[in-house]
Amino acid sequence: MKEHVVINSNLSFLFLEDSESDFEIIKELLNDEGFDFTFKRVENEHDYTKELESNEFDIILSDFSLPGFNAFGALKIASDKCPDTPFIVVSGSIGEETAIELIKLGAVDYVLKDKPDRLPFTVKRALEEVEEKQARKQAEEILANEQYLMKMLLDNVPDHIYFKNIESKFIRINNAQATSFGLNDPQEAVGKSDFDFFKVEHATQAYEDEQTIINTGEPIIAKEEKAIRTDKSESWVTTTKMPLRDKLGNIIGTFGVSSDITQRKKAEEAITKRIADLEYFHSFVVKRELKMVELKKEINQLLKELGRDNEYIFK
Fold first, then answer.
1. Rounded distance, CA 311 to CA 125, Å?
2. What confidence tens digit (pLDDT) does each residue in 204-242 have?
3. Which of 77, 102, 101, 100 is nearest to 88 (CA)?
């Protein structure tokens, strides 16, 4: 029993062929090979163009030479109207140079009518290429969408987001981080480190933290730190840093998010100072009151020694 090349269902073929007998031979050959298909035959440019405008096909088969028309013209029309549909030339005779030219222009392959056994394999390969192309296109669309979402996040989130290599040098930062560094473009930070933007004390601590993450794989979560830049401006941030891994799970750097909490820290400092002031005032008042009580008691004692009534009464 002959093994089928493929098992495809509901395929739609368009065959540009003016020979009824050749059409039947090709149709029977594909049927014997296990293809489940509908077959539409046209004989001229007008009908061919009309079918491509009105219907969708999985495969286009085309004779090379027809009255007033040939495979070059058919391929051009197919390329314009359905560029993703495989185009295969099925011809009685065709020169090698002509065949190569057709393939350069986009034809999948050519099959000689006196060697039709190649056609099922050619069709199978063409269909597989379409599937691979669709899968690749879908993957590219998914990747493009993920990249778009990442760009939207990096461009608009107010927090500072950054990625660093194993040497703690920036490989990417977002707009907010670039603005805080005084840069016009996030790309300007690539290859630089915290030592280019912060005082040595803060840059050194950040570097040590990141190297610890790289060596241990343990993240740093919500660490509050004071950042002093090279222009001596100060800010407070809460920082979370994680190990950056490649597809195999190897640590290749770090990435992190820092949120500015300068206003919150200033408010906390103001409240702390206010509490300290109130406590001092309270302590001062209490001490003063205690001294007044002692003074009043002393006055009462002196009055008693003089035989007079107390001036102050305590409850």
1. 117
2. 999 999 999 999 999 999 999 988 888 878 888 999 999
3. 102
- Measured CA to CA, the distance from residue 90 to residue 117 in angstroms comes to 12
Tens of pLDDT, residues 38-87: 889 999 999 999 999 999 999 999 999 888 899 999 999 999 999 999 99
What the block records as the tokens of 298 is 């002393």
Residue type, 31: N
The CA–CA distances, whole Å, from 100 to 77, 88, 97, 104, 117 equal 19, 13, 5, 6, 20
Report the alpha-carbon distance of residue 261 to residue 226 in Å, rounded: 10
pTM of the model: 0.60
Topology annotation, domain 157-260: Beta-Lactamase (3.30.450)
For the residues of 178-218, what is the DSSP string, one character each? HHHTT-SSGGGGTT--GGGTB-HHHHHHHHHHHHHHHHH--
Q: What is the largest CA-CA distance in the chain?
A: 148
Helix (H, G, I), strand (E, B) or coil at 225: strand
Query: Does residue 158 have a pLDDT over 60?
Result: yes
Kindly calculate the radius of gyration of the chain based on its CA atoms and give it in whole angstroms. Answer: 42
Counting other chains too, the contacts that 94-98 makes at CB distance below 8 Å and 24 or more residues apart are: 94/64, 98/64
Other CB atoms within 10 A of residue 24 CB = 13
Angle between helices 96-104 and 71-81 (to 10 degrees): 10
Domain locations along the chain = 8-139, 157-260
State the SS3 of 19-49: CHHHHHHHHHHHHHCCEEEEEEEECCHHHHH
**Across the chain, how many H-helices and E-strands are there?**
8, 12
Q: What is the CATH number of domain 8-139?
A: 3.40.50.2300
